[in-house]
Automatic annotation (TrEMBL):
<dbReference type="Pfam" id="PF00196">
    <property type="entry name" value="GerE"/>
</dbReference>
<dbReference type="InterPro" id="IPR000792">
    <property type="entry name" value="Tscrpt_reg_LuxR_C"/>
</dbReference>
<keyword id="KW-0238">DNA-binding</keyword>
<keyword id="KW-0805">Transcription regulation</keyword>
<dbReference type="InterPro" id="IPR016032">
    <property type="entry name" value="Sig_transdc_resp-reg_C-effctor"/>
</dbReference>
<protein>
    <submittedName>
        <fullName>Response regulator transcription factor</fullName>
    </submittedName>
</protein>
<dbReference type="InterPro" id="IPR029016">
    <property type="entry name" value="GAF-like_dom_sf"/>
</dbReference>
<dbReference type="InterPro" id="IPR036388">
    <property type="entry name" value="WH-like_DNA-bd_sf"/>
</dbReference>
<feature type="domain" description="HTH luxR-type">
    <location>
        <begin position="260"/>
        <end position="325"/>
    </location>
</feature>
<keyword id="KW-0804">Transcription</keyword>
Amino acid sequence: MPSHHQLAAATRIGMLTREHDTAAACAEALRELALALPLDMATLLTRDPLTGAHLQLAGIGSTAQASEALAVEFVTTPWYRNVMTRDLPPSISADAEDLPEYGPRFREGWFYAERVRPAGFRDGMTGALRHRDRLVGMVHLYTRRPDAYDTDARRLLASVMPAFAALADPAASVAGQLPTDAGAALVTPDAVLELPGRTRPEVLREAKLRHLVGVFAGASGLRVRLLWPGSGGTWYRVALRRPRPTPGIAPDAVLIHESPTLPPYGLSPRELEVLTLAAMGWTNRAIAEALFVSPRTVHTHIEHLLRKTGAASRAEATALAVRDGLLCPAPEHLAFFVER
């Protein structure tokens, strides 16, 4: 049965999921675990949701390079498959007792003989971390004490694994950077990663918007805000931004979020195009040539958007557009509006 000291440590680990500094919270969570369980080495790993690679978030007694290299080998072992299928995290000392159906004992395998025992460790325990029904990482503990991780120790680790999983989930960490009412996703050159608790942005259905995301990924800058007309007269406020550096998230990933909005100022899609080009400093003639209309038509659009926005001048209207993100740029013009 867990002691009062162990229960207090488990409670403190749970509270760390509220911290905004994930890296510091992960390190503190391992330190709290070291107060509750015997350990000489521990590592908390996140799993890249696109590649499956494991990256260290925090460690005790091991470098990130060493832990990540061990993880590459560990996932090829039968023991890894045991870890994935057990509700209670298995330990080396419990291996002989209650895992007879999973083939060779861990102590009889090459990983123990070549990696664990030479390092001086006599017991170990591994938990698979799942968050919102997704595998998000692992936590490994090793100690030089033999038979240290009995059933009570395994149950204690199991009790804090949900907190470790919340800390290790890179998608949850990114989702926490956004307003709660925004549809959102992470976009990389190869895939779209849906975020927990968020709907996939509707605007990603459009090839032009996906092209804009690719251009933004290759540009320098932190954020760009857009106004995007959707189907059926629906409009969206859209932001493309660089997520904060997060282990498990590719550095070229783009965080996109959208929120439905009423047509601002009653602008039409064509007026929005004209306003965007005017915000770049283009003349009426240049806008007319780009949109294949007459300068007189552009002049009429300018008059309409001045009246709708209540702006006293073209300069005031374009300043309003940049300030409020009333922009719908073509991919080749996106860099002009990226915030740095």
